[in-house]
Design brief:
By secondary structure, this protein is α/β, with parallel strands linked by helices. It has 11 helices and 15 strands. Bound molecules: adenosine monophosphate and magnesium ion.
């Protein structure tokens, strides 16, 4: 199937921003948002991972609006969000044992399961394929919204396709203001990178996207999980299984150069590239693993707390854009735990990767 991007001359609309209490979402505001989705339109809302752009997952015309607003290629399937485990049955053909185990431990939470889809899920929602990705979010606003609309909600990240995922309502407005009906502003999202996606539609489970739940956590529960060695690469077999992976993602306007290797070598390479780009008159940003004081236009220390790093990653990308940085030199981190998901985002956002042995 050929991918097409559903961009039309869109009519600018008023985007209403509703501030809502994340700990105890006001029912009146949830009802207002649910009304928008029930009438076939779009609402951006927070989940524990990133902000999602929601529409009724079972209605083709509503779902099409998501692809148009984001400029998302039509073969990139959406994750369907539910608020109750009992909603899963109507969306899938079969629930394997591994799914039951994972659901019992990780739902609600940042884990998405890919299963054979049932007939009621429209093809547009799944990008034309016969599996569907499903997740039950933990965020109270997301849960209340799904419950109140009474339908599963398809929700990709609420950014323009290819841009960093939004972790605050302002990011959503910057990308989609004037293109969507409503944003529920529930503050900063907790995890900051997207859900882990695991494919259970085949004989053996395989990881399609590392994310909020670590590979180690999944392995300790269900054992072996296929992890294609090329999970980070765009041109792998995996792209057929998870179409979203072939597209450039998460990218700020600045060009990201990802540098991996021992601390000293990474530092030397950084100093060399910094001098080289500054000579060309470029504004250089650095995301650094050490406390070295570089004479860059903006340096952000990655620190050693992976959860803090994940929570701030996409916001940092956008801050480099605000400062009009041309090139960001990013230091690679260890791929353990959340590190695998963070490195996956960095690699997909990168314009160039340098590995120094
Ligand atoms: P997003 O919601 O924008 O973070 O992207 C959803 C991710 O899940 C993309 O990488 C999709 O390719 C992937 N995905 C969604 N549905 C499926 C599916 N049925 N099979 C494989 N991957 C999927
Ligand atoms: Mg996305």
């Amino acid at each position: 199937m050929t991918a097409s991007i559903l961009i039309k001359n869109q009519v600018k609309m008023h985007t209403e921003i509703l501030k809502i209490n994340p700990k105890n979402p006001q029912l009146s505001k949830i009802r207002q948002a649910a009304k928008v989705i029930k009438s076939g339109n779009l609402v951006a809302f927070p989940t524990e991972t990133v902000y999602g752009l929601g529409a009724n997952a079972l209605d083709s015309r509503s779902v099409k609006k998501i692809f148009v607003a984001k400029g998302r290629p039509s073969d990139n399937p959406l994750i369907v969000h539910i608020s109750d485990i009992s909603d899963l049955k109507m969306l899938v053909d079969h629930i394997p044992n591994t799914a039951h185990k994972l659901i019992a431990k990780f739902w609600p939470g940042p884990l998405t399961l890919v299963l054979k889809k049932s007939k009621i899920v429209p093809k547009i929602t799944t990008g034309g394929i016969n599996t569907v990705a499903i997740r039950m979010p933990e965020n109270k606003i997301a849960q209340a919204l799904i419950r109140e609309t009474g339908v599963p909600i398809a929700a990709p990240s609420a950014n323009i396709s290819g841009r960093p995922s939004p972790t605050i309502a302002k990011h959503v407005f910057d990308d989609l203001g004037g293109k969507i009906n409503m944003i529920l502003d529930g503050g900063k999202t907790k995890i900051g990178i997207e859900s882990t996606v695991i494919d259970l539609s085949r004989k053996h489970p395989s990881l399609l996207r590392p994310g909020g739940i670590s590979l180690e956590q999944l392995q300790s529960l269900i054992g072996k999980i296929a992890l294609p060695s090329s999970i980070h690469e765009r041109k792998s077999k995996l792209i057929h299984r998870s179409p979203g992976m072939k597209y450039r993602h998460y990218s700020p306007n600045a060009k990201i150069i990802l540098i991996e290797g021992s601390k000293d070598k990474v530092k030397n390479k950084t100093l060399h590239l910094l001098a080289q780009f500054q000579k060309q008159g470029k504004k250089v940003g650095i995301m650094s693993i050490s406390n070295t004081k570089y004479k860059s236009d903006m340096t952000v220390f990655l620190g050693n707390k992976l959860d803090v790093l994940a929570a701030n990653l996409f916001n940092t990308f956008r801050e480099f854009d605000v400062k009009k940085i041309d090139v960001i030199l990013v230091h690679g981190i260890n791929r353990k735990g959340l590190g695998l998901g963070i490195m996956n985002r960095l690699e997909k956002a990168a314009y160039k990767k340098i590995k120094i042995d």
